[in-house]
Amino acid sequence: MIARIGIAVVFLFASDAALAHAPFSGAGGFYGGLLHPWFVPVHLMAIVATAAVIAQQGSPWNWSMHWHAPAAFAIGLAAGFIAIACAYAPEFSGEAVLAVAAMAGLLTALALPLRAILVATIATASGAAVALDSPPDVISLREAIVIQLGTFCGAILLMAAALEGASRLHRGWQRIGIRILGSWIAASAVLVLALQLAQ
Amino acid sequence: MRSRVTRYLLVFSLLLMAVPAHAHTGSVAGGFVGGLEHPVFGPDHVVAMVAVGLWGAFLGPPAIYLLPVVFPLVMAFGGVLGILGVPLPGTEIGIATSAIVLGLMVATAVRPPIWSAAVVVGAFAIFHGHSHGAELPPGADAIAFSAGFVIATGLLHLTGIAFGLLACWPVGVIAVRTAGALIACAGFVFLSRLV
Questions:
Q1: Helix B32-40 and helix B142-164, axial crossing angle in degrees, nearest 10
Q2: Which of A6, A179, A187 has the CB atom closest to B76's CB atom?
Q3: Nearest to A191 among B70, B83, B151 (CB)
Q4: For residue B76, which residues of chain A lie inside 8 Å, CB to CB?
Q5: If you ran DSSP here, which 8-state letter would residue A120 be given?
Q6: Is B8 on the interface with A (CB under 8 A)?
Q7: Which of A88, B41, B46, B101 has its CA at 20 to 30 Å from residue B151's CA atom?
Q8: 3-state SS assignment for residue B55
Q9: What's the whole-number mean pLDDT along residues A41-68?
């Protein structure tokens, strides 16, 4: 019996992630772009922290009050991709994503009630920073547009999933868990930002 | 017979799990796993982190969640100092002292106001952050490394909180205070090695 359980445990630990498409090597086109925000840790942190800030202000699906923040994120993304299409590629895009992640993580940890305009500004900055830090690594214009479209959809899906998940966490300890997650994201982003600026 | 076959299968499956042994561990060790290992394999860090969680649980709400939120944020400030090369005298002594002070707080059941508890924990977090920040690897693995050690730090806090929740019972209070005393003793051992 113990040996059987041992085999089961061994196979559990031996299992690896099942990837339909490798996120980077070999993955190109729309699917490569779609997976990009989910597998780049800095982008994941920035989007999740932004979603947590929005969710802390109330239900994200209460459109009469909170439609603006997810929409602002989408507008920021679109603006960033349009800027890349116009050959604008800032050198500080990585630092910008880290700064947004740090700011959103800090606000999540503080859990303060924020003005709607401030939440919308953070969401716009988050979207724009993620888009500017995702320039497609191809020469063909058609392929670049397809990748950007995939990244746009992936970022929107990630934002929607994180918003939906965070907005369902109503209990006291769940809210505390979100604040602790925010403090972890802020701490990690601040450290890496400092490292990049020091180099 | 079936039992023997099962044992052979277990041994065979363990053999399948074997991976090459690298003398230089490369990006994985420098990344998330390296970050996770960094606080866990430093006993002085471990006892101090657990003591933060223990003290938070012992003080009850809001300290139980405020201290684990404050610690990473202030630790990041200390980490920035370490990355920028700002010297912080007596970093290792500060880390050992954190174990002594936090352990004694739990052992003697000190219940200060929440703001002063946050100040004490935050002050020691700077020493821990400075130590981590000075060893942060450059390059693409930095984000994975920092996320790894921040999460490891948080999990050590949660371990302390989980144990500290035993203080709900009279016997648990004795166990938690004893753990605090042991942490303080460990801190004295770390300090004696440094001085």
A1: 40
A2: A187
A3: B83
A4: 186-188, 190-191
A5: H
A6: no
A7: B101
A8: helix
A9: 78
Identity of the residue in A7, A186, A191 whose CB atom sits nearest the CB atom of B13: A7
**CA trace torsion A145, A150, A155, A157 (10° rounding):** 140
Counting every residue written for chain B, the total comes to: 195
CA distance A140 to B2: 61
**Closest chain A C-alpha to B51 CA, distance in angstroms:** 18
- A103 contacts in B (CB within 8 Å)? none
pTM for the full predicted model: 0.76
- Interface confidence (ipTM) of the complex: 0.71
| Annotated domain spans of chain B | 29-194
With a CB cutoff of 8 Å and minimum separation 6, the contacts of B28 are B34
> Chain A interface, mutation test: which of B143, B155, B157, most A Cβ atoms within 10 Å?
B143
Backbone angles phi, psi at A171, to 5 degrees: -65, 160
Q: Which residue of B has its CA nearest to A195?
A: B83
| Closest-CA distance of chain B to residue A18, Å | 17
Q: What's residue B194's pLDDT? A: 78
Residue of B49, B68, B66, B31 lying closest to B128 (CA atoms): B49
Question: Which tens digit of pLDDT belongs to each residue from B144-195?
Answer: 788 888 888 888 888 888 888 888 888 888 888 999 899 999 989 988 887 7
Contact B83, A191 (CB under 8 A): yes
Separation of alpha carbons B118 and A167, rounded Å: 29
CA B161 → CA A72, A175, B60, B176, distances in Å?
39, 17, 10, 10
Q: What is the pLDDT of residue B45?
A: 85
Which residues in chain A have Cβ-Cβ distances shorter than 8 Å to B128? none
A141 vs B76 pLDDT, higher one: B76
State whether residue B17 sits within 8 Å of chain A by CB: yes
Query: A46 and A104 in contact (C-beta within 8 Å)?
Result: yes
Instruction: Report the pLDDT value the prediction gives residue B8, as an integer from 0 to 100.
Output: 59
DSSP state for residue A139 in the 8-state scheme = S
In single-letter form, the type of residue at position B109 comes to A
Nearest to B73 among A3, A41, A187 (CB): A187
Contacts of B69 in chain A (CB under 8 A): 109, 179-180, 183
For chain A, domain boundaries: 2-198
| Res B23: pLDDT | 37
Reply yes or no on whether the pLDDT at B138 is more than 70: no
